[in-house]
Amino acid sequence: MYKILLFLIFPIMMFAQQYRLEGRVLDIHNEKLGSISIEVYNTEDKLIGSWATTESGDFQIDNISERMVKLSIKARGYEHVEKTLDLENIQGSLNIVLKKDHQDIEEVKLVKKKPVVKRKVDRLEFNVEDSNISSLNAWEILKKTPNVTVVNDLLSVKGSTGIVVTINDKKVMLTGDELKNLLENTQGDDIKSVEVITNPPAKYEASGSSVLNIVMKKNKIEGYRGIISSKYIQTQYAKGNIGISQYYKKNKLSVMASYYKGAGIYFREGTDYVNYQEDQTKCMSTMNRKDKNMNQNTINVYVEYEIDSLTNISFNYSGYYSPNSKGVYNVPTLIFNNENRLESDYTTINDHHSRSINNSLSFQVDKKLNKKSSLSWINYFTGNDSQKYQNVLTYLNFIGQSPTQNNFQTNNKNNIVLYSTQADYQWKNEKIELESGAKYSFVKTNSQLDFSDNENGLLQYREDKSSIFDYKEHNLAFYTSIAYHLNKWNFKAGLRAEMTDLEGIVSMPYEVNKNNYWNVFPTLYVQYSTENKQEFGFSYGKRISRPTYSWLNPAKSYFNLFSYFQGDPKLKATIVHNLNFTYSWKAWNLDFYYRKEMYPSMEISFQEPSKNQLIYYFTNIEKGQAYGLNLYKNFQIKPWWNVIVSENLEHNENYFVGIEDVLYKNSVWNWVSDISTSFTLDKRNDWKMEFGHRYYSPGIQGTFRISSNWSAYFVMNRKFFNKKLEASFIFNDIFRTTEQKVSTKYANQDNYFLDYQDTQGFTLSLKFNFGNQSVKNAKAIKKADEQSRL
């Protein structure tokens, strides 16, 4: 039977059509690509066969029985190509061109790493994605960035603390603990680089001495991913944080939403000493501040939509809500006579609580006008509402007097509203880049202090010690800059003009302060590169540092009967001049710099002998200046062993007028050293460990002299289950060596305090990634400058 069947089929097989396919695979530069996989499928997506190109990129496929086939070409580093072919209509040889795939591919291993640090004409770029610290969060990465130091959670660049933090050149509208919380919950895996801009170009706000710009990786791959994270921190007392972040991208829509909840007990230890030269007495107060805040909420929502290939719109909401932070301070004060014998004392019990609410909304439109130019328009609104209440009871036991007690209460309410709108235009070609823009902002603040005490035997409201402070500020800015590239030379120059119109009204005693002024802020950059890749640079920039809104409030905020702090509504803005000479070669980075500050504003102390009071207040000193040298070098000892050395030597001078109207000079040579060594403990780059040491020599701030301190730390990070789960352990201030002595001593001023900010402790954190982990963070929206002063 089978012979008959074979006899019937054989003629059909003889006359069935057999096809042949041949061609060549090239890249966009017509380079021939060898060993490229080619698969052929039929119309039902069944595999017919697989082939590979020769070294010359050629392929030839014979005996294809199907007329309609699908050709599939896959090659690492190139976009996937699929073609449906009618073999009967193909004449001659095919040329198939593969394009480079620009998507982020996790498994690509670079044969040669890019430089960790790159010097550009107007900034220093720290490439995080090519370093072994990408597993850390953004806060820890900033602490390891060249030229950046962190002392008591305060960021500084080359000794200057007027820092502006941006994400993808968009201002982050948070400060203090809220900023730290945001950065701690920003993944290092999503960060491409950190840019240190010591002389910011004209497009940046003139306020602030330096800019730290965090550049995020692009979001190119569609999908959904999420992150659940938790953190346990043990210092003197325990703290914790838990949160979820979710990212989604589909077609033209990108969405990011996150929520974090924190709780814990915060501790700070201090001792104050005041020596009164007039009667040779001495006071000593011990204050251990313990505050409980069990409900800290941070929310962030970002939405971006691509209207068309040239137009994007984005919306951002961020909020912080802390309904109740509370504590009770028990502060004993001992008073010694001129023979150093205890003769009097008093005890202060400070019972207090506070709340804080911050809501920010922003809307942005980005429009590409053509291949060379683009336009952006940003609107921003924020509202900040806070309240601080304290009930202070003092037990007095003075020599020669009967024991008495005093009680006062304060209730301080603050409300800040800010609005800004800004437009930016950019045009560029291969050699020239032009930027221009304008911005308007309006700020309104209201601060109300209600003071009550029992001076007359009953707790009563005191109008003479209460105060209402209203403040309004308008700011209008225009800027333009131009950059030019000529062979080995790079040039850039810009000019920004800002008009400030402000009014402050104090109720008690009644006073009105008005001011209206224009400032211009020039910038200039020059960079030259030699044949052997040495880079020489020069830059100059003029900046302004406006006082924080709370510094302008003259109301007295009492710690106890004999100590308070006070703002000044007449504070001047500080003008800063920055000058830099840079040199880079083979990963060596040197920076010679000079900084001059006219009327810098800061907190200083002042003791009043006639009332035995110690007063802290914000004021302008005459001037400050500093010059120094910064060195940064990354040593790659082995592929798995890395050493980083960062050194900064600076001479700093502050000039201030003392209580007797005499000009004083406070100066010091300051050395900051940061040395760390890190190890990669496995081949998959999933297990890392680091040891580090930071040293700060004595420093100054206005009338203050600040003692030296140092700290050692240890970090370990491990990823599990194909990077789905990540665990980290950090041990900070291992030997508890960060306590500082801050002293004032001139004329009849002689006081100091010891301060320890509870830095010794360990952190355990877990992070679980789910969904499509190829999705990257969406960009943060641009923010206004004024929020940094909230």
TrEMBL record:
Predominant cellular place of this UniProt entry's protein: membrane
Keyword Transit peptide: no
Entry-linked Gene3D superfamilies: TonB-dependent receptor, beta-barrel domain
UniProt KW Membrane keyword: yes
Cellular localisation: Cell outer membrane
Any one of the GO CC terms: cell outer membrane
Domain Outer membrane protein beta-barrel, chain residue ranges per copy: 370-767
Keywords: Cell outer membrane, Membrane
Protein name: Outer membrane protein beta-barrel domain-containing protein
